[in-house]
Structure formats: C-alpha cells, structure tokens
Amino acid sequence: MRTFGLILVGCWLAFMGSWWIVARLFRSSEANRMRSRLLSRAGRKSAQSSDKAGPALIAAEDKRTGQLILRLLARLELRGRLQSLLEQAGLKWHVGRLIHACLACFLVVFAILWYGVPALRRVAPLAAGAMGALPLAYVRRRRGRRLRKFEEQFPESLEFVSRSMRAGHAFSVSLDMLHKEFQEPLAGEFRRTFDEHNLGLPLESALQKLAVRVPLMDMQFFVSAVLLQKRTGGNLAELLDKLAYVIRERFKLRGRLRAVSAHGRMTTMALSMIPLAVAGLMFFANREYVTFFFTDETGRLMLGAAVCLQAVGYFVMRKIVSIEV
Question: Hey, how many other C-beta atoms are within 10 angstroms of the C-beta on 154?
Fold first, then answer.
C-alpha cells in the first residue's frame, strides 16, 4: 500500500512537470509563430520597431492553465472571488497556481502521515486538509497586511491630493503624482487607476474598480465623495481634508480600544497555550498517560473533541476582544 501511494504521488509530480514543460513549449511556439506573422506583414521598419517595443500593459491569464480546475471553480462561482483575493493581496499568481499549491500541500502531508506515521492515519485527512489550506491562509495574511499598510498611508495621500488641487492641478493629475510621492501598495493602486482613466476608462468606473480592489470603508467614502462632487459640485479639496481628519481620529480611537482590550487578548493567548504546555509537560513526565490519547480509540475521540472545543473557545474569546471601529 505504501508503494502504491508513493507511485501515485510520483505520477502526479511527473504529470505536473511534463504539463509545465509542454505548456512552455506551446506558448513559445505560438509566440514565435505570431511574431513571424507580424514581421511578414509589417516589413523591416515595423520589425525593427517591434524589437524595441516594451512589455504589454495588460497581462491576461493563460486560459490553458488548469482548464479543469478553472471550469470547476467557475461553476462553483469561486474563480472570481479567488482572483479578487489574489489582486487584493498584491500577488501576481493565477487562480490555477493557487489551487495547485493547495493540492500539492494536501497530497504531500497526507502521504507523509498515512505511510510514514501509521499511528496518525485517522487524523491524516484533517491534518492534510489543514496544510492544504495553508497557501490560501498565506494569501489572506498578505491581503490583510497589504490593506493595513494601505490604510495607514491613505490619510496622508488624501491631504496630498487636496494640496495639489489647491495648487492648480487636476484631480487625475493628482492621482498620477501619488505614484511618484508614495510607496507601495498605495502608489501602485492609484497608478493603476490613473492608467485606466488615461487609456479611456471613465473616471467613475476607474474609481469603482479601485474600491473593489481595496475593500476598505475609507476607500468607499473617498470614491463616494469624489463621484458626488463631480455630479453636484463643491469644494473637493476641503472635503478630502475633512475625510483625512475623520480617518485619523478613527485611528486614535482604535488605538485606545486596543490598549483597553490588551488584557483580554493576553488572557486569550494564555488560556489557549495552557493545554498545550500541560500536554508537553505530561509527555515528558508520564508518557504512558499521554500516549493513551493516540493509541486508544476512546482516547482519540477525547483528543479530537478537546481540540475542537479548544479551537471554538479561542475564536469566541478573540471575537469578544476584537472591537470594530
């Protein structure tokens, strides 16, 4: 049985490697064929200019990458959500690559636990499922860090746009200046918005797409204020200054709440780590007492129930001490 599992994992890895090589070959051959066709039509001058051309402005996703997985995700209405999640995380991954990474982590951990540690075969699917969700958890963590960094830069960027408009610059020009004066991720998002508007997309649509890529309440207020000012008129610079002031005051209130709830967060971590510490001490002090939870059927059921209850308690305590502002 172990040999069969190793053969299965090896076949999957060989299939993925051969698929990657064949896809690269087909992609390069298609690019060469298209290049030769363009050169034959355009002549020598266009050929020289095409050699000096820069990269494409928009890189579309390769539809041949994991067609079966992408079709399944499209039917489940998950492909758009995963693509939006990757964009919000600032990762240049394809949806197929994310799914393949999750599947690879699941198979590797399952094979190690099922054939390497026979005593843990009953928990192998759960552990493999948790490790299979690790790439998705990494993407969500990158998304959270990127949005928090964007939120920290946002008030200063609003004041910068307000000052540039008072100096006589147009609103779209102020968006372009943000790319030069600020760092990522704020600079890249506003640069993309300016490029979309500069290439012909209406300003309303470009700002609405920005609000989708940056799902923050402050960004919703900003987009609504700009669109409302464009339709009804008013002093946009003053409105942006007031919005920046409100955002900074909300940051101060959030800091006070975090200071007040610090004791609750420390209590949550302490109560969650005590069972693990006691289990580690008992493993060295009385190993037979601890191995009961892994070797006996009743012990495994008790261990699974304890882990589930501990996880529920942790999330409940985290929910209590987390206060949204």
Answer: 20
